[in-house]
Amino acid sequence: MNELTTLHDAITATIKAAMPQVETVEAFPEGLDGLTKPAIAFALTGMDPGADPGDGRSGVKVTFEARVLVDANLPHTPLAAVNLAAQLVDLLRLQAWGLEFVEGTTAVRAMPTNVSTQSLHYLSWTVQWQQIIYFGQEEWPWPNQGPGSLAFGFAPDTGPGSEDAYQSPEHMQ
After folding, report:
1. How many structural domains is the chain composed of?
2. pLDDT in tens, 34-67
3. Is residue 30 part of a domain?
């Protein structure tokens, strides 16, 4: 499983657990016609270079967009849609989905949108967010060193033959 699949699964599980009143939570759904209960459909909509963590992984700033959909024929639909969007915005606060390769969300915003299909009309809110994802495995190109102590040397007393001039951090003042 790759990072994006793991991330999409974590987003789906987290939203489902936090928002049980939403019947469907899906990444990249193929069709949502016929829904009678609220749904959230989300997708990754952009990727930009992110900061290089310096450990062999690639940092990528991704943008996600989620649509909160509520059947427009239900009573109090506008209030239900905005309440669900607000709940999702709250859930997104610094959300990293429990994954070590993902930084917390930033740039969270929500706005109303309208979605029409051939069979139903939904009232919808769009919620967008960004976060940094690190792809790949951490790399350490130097050989692992066993336990030891850190020692500092100061020029010109460094290098072979000057080991007795080195100082441990505990003895520095």
Report:
1. 1
2. 666 888 999 999 999 998 888 889 999 999 999 9
3. yes
- Residues 19, 124: Cα–Cα separation, whole Å: 16
Name the amino acid, one letter, at 44. Answer: L
| Predicted confidence (pLDDT) per residue in 2-32, tens digit | 999 999 999 999 999 999 999 889 887 776 6
Contact 3, 47 (CB under 8 A): no
For the chain, where are the alpha helices, taking DSSP H only? Answer: 3-18, 77-91
Q: How large is the greatest C-alpha to C-alpha distance in the chain, in angstroms? A: 84
Give SS3 for 31: coil
| CB 106 within 8 Å of CB 129 | yes
Give me the chain's average pLDDT, please.
87
Q: Name the residue range of residue 47's domain.
A: 3-135
Pick from 44, 89, 39, 111: which is nearest to 68 by CA? 39
The bridge status of strand 39-49 relative to strand 58-71 is antiparallel
Residue 161 lies in a domain: no
Amino acid at 14: T
Q: Tell me the sheet residues that pair with 46.
A: 63
170 lies in a domain? Answer: no
Pair of tokens at residue 55: 């450990």
